[in-house]
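Example 3.
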Amino acid sequence: MANVLLITFTISLLYLGIAHRLLTYIKILAFQGVLLFGIAFIELIEINVVNLTFVLLETIVIKAIAIPLFVNYVMKRNRITRDAEPFLPNFVSLIIITLIIITTFLLSNSISDTRISKIYFVVALSTLFTGLYIIVTRSKIITHIMGYLVIENGVFILSLALGNEMPMLVNLGILLDIFASVFLLGIFVNRIGDVLKDVDVDQLKNLKD
Amino acid sequence: MTGIYLAGAFLISGLLFFNRNRMLKHLIIIAFVLLQIGFTVYEYLHINTTELTYFTADSMAVLLLLTLCVISMPAFYHSYVYLGTKQDNPKHTAIYFAAMVALLTSISAAYLSNHIAVTWIFVELTTLSASALIYHRRNNRSLEGTWKYVFVCAVSITLVFIGILFLSFSLPKAGTDALSFGNLIKKASELNVFWLRLAFIFIFTGFTAKLGLVPMYTAGIDAKDKAPSPAGALLSSVLMNVGFIGIFRTYTVAANSPIHQWANHVIIIAALLSIFVATVYMTKVKNIKRMFAYSGIEHAGIIMLGLAAGGVGYYAAVLHIILHAFIKSSLFFQQGQIYRIYQSKSIYDVGNYFKYNVTGSVVMLLAFFFATAMPPSGLFISEFMIFRSLFEANYLWILIVVMVLLTIIIWAFGKNIFKLLFTPAVDFREDSIEKINPFESVSQFILLGLVVYLGLNPPQEFVTLIQEAVKNLPH
C-alpha cells in the first residue's frame, strides 16, 4: 500500500512539470500532503502514539491544508498573475523530470543495503531534484517557494525510510518544514509584496559584481 | 552552565526585543557581554566536560568560543557607533541588538554541540537571526540580500538534513545517541561506505553556505555586503567558523573511515574552485565590502586545502581560521568608518584616505598586509605551514596553481587598497566630511596585534588547545 502511494507521489511530480497555472501547483502540493499523511501512517504505525499523532497532524494540517491556503492567500494579497511562466516549454520539462526519475532509479541499483527499501530512496531523490529543477526554470519568486516545498516533501519521504528506528529524525524534518516554510512565506507576505510591486525574480538582480 | 547561558542569553535577546528604554538597553547588553565572557572562561576551565547531554566543550569548541568572545566586544561597540550616526528608530535598534545577541548565542551553541542534529538546529537559528541583521537598513537592496541569503541557506540546511539522514542509513544499528560525533568517530570503520559518501557530499555542500566555499558561497557575499558593517564583521568571521566546525567534525568522521582519500579529493576540488572564483572576482569587484567577502572565500579555500593535505596542515588550518576571523572582522569594522567619510562603498568614490583619517589608514594598510599573509602577520605562518603540508602530501601541482592565484589576489587587493589610501578621489567634496575619533580604531589595533602575537609567539596553552583539537584526525 505504501508503494502505491509512493508511486502516485512520483506521478504527481510529472504533473507538476506540465502544470500551467499556479493554482494547479497549490492543488498538487495539497495532494502531496495527503499522500504523505498516508505514507507516514502506514510506515510509522509502530512508534509511540504521541509522536505518531504529532507527525500525522503535521502532514495533514500543515502540509495539506495550512501551507496551500497560506500560499493562496499570499498570491491573492500580492495580486500575482496566475501563470507559472516557465523558461522552458512544458514538453521539455516533462522529459527532464522523466530523465531525473530514470537516473535516480538506475543510481539506486548500486545500493547493496537490505535495511533501506530502495523505493524511498528513488522517490525522495527524484522529488529533491524535481524541486531544484522547478526553482531553476520558473521565473516567479512564489514558484521558487513552491519548489522549495517540493524539496521539503522529498526530505520528509527520505526521513520516513528509517522512521521506525529513529523517530527523532522525522521530528527534525518537521521542524525544518515548519521553520523554513513559515519563515520564507512570512518574509514574502510582509516584505517583498510591499516593496516590489511586480513580484518577479528579475527584480532581484541588483546585487552583483 | 550551558543551560544557564542558553536560557540567560535567549532571555536577554527577548528583553532587548521588547525594551525601548535606552539606559536599560545599555545595562542588558553589558550583562550579555559579561555572561558571554563568564561562559567562555567557565568552558575553558572545564574543558572536555559534557553538559545537557548534547554540549561538550572540547578543545576546538573552546578555541572558537574564545575567538567569538574577543570579536563580540568590539562588534557591540561598533554597533553603538553605527547606530549613533544613523539616528535609527528605537524599534529597529531593538531588533538589531536582539538579533545580534541571538546570533552570538546560537553560534556558541553550535560550536559546543557534540551531536550533528543539535549542530544543525543551531545553524538553522543562525540563519534566522542573521537575516534580521542583514535586513536592518530596510530598503530594496537589503531586502534582496536578505531574501537570497534566507533562500540559499534554507536550501543548504535542507541539504545538510538529507546528509544527516544518509548518515543514519550508514550506521549498522540505529539509536538516538548514535549520531553523536563521538560515537560516529568510534564506529567510523563500520559505516556503510556508499551511504557515508552521499552523507559527506550533502553535509559538505550544505555547510559551504556558511563557510563560503564553492558551490553555495553566493548568498554569503550579498549578506556581508548588505549587512551593517559590525554585523558584516560577525558574518565573515564567527559565522564562517560555524560552517568550518560543521565541516571539520564531519570530516573527522570521514577521515577515520575508508573514504578518507575520497573525501580529501572532494575537499580539494571545492577549495581550488573557491580560490579560483575568489581570484576572478577580486580582480573585477568594485565594491570594497564585497572585495573583503571574496577575500574570505579565498581564505576558506586555503583552510580546506590544509585540512585535505593533512600532517602539519591540520594544525595550520585551525590556526588560520582563528587568525582570519580577527583580521577580517577588523577590516569590516574599519570599513564602517570609511563609509561614514565617503558615503559610498564603490572604489571609484573613495581615495586619499590618509588625508582624512590617519589612524584608520594605518589600520587599513596593516590589515591589507595581514590579510594577504605577509610577515609579520600570523597568517604568514599558517599559510606557509599549509603550503609545506601540500608539498609533503605530493600535491605539488595544486600548490603551484594556488600560489599563482594568490599572487593575482594580492595584486588585485593591493590595487584597490592603495587606490583607497593614496589616489585622490574624483569629485569628492571635502567640506562636509565627518571627523572620526581615532579612538574608534583601537579595537582594530588590538585584533591585529593578537594576530601577530598568536602567529609568531603563540602561548603554550594555545598550541596545546590546537593540538588537542586535531587529535582525532589520523596522522
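Chain A touches chain B at residues 110-113, 115-116, 128, 141, 144, 148, 151-152, 155, 158-159, 161-162, 165-166, 168-169, 172-173, 175-176, 179-180, 183-184, 187, 191-192, 195-196, 203-204, 206-207, 209 (CB under 8 Å). The first helix of chain A runs from residue 2 to 18.
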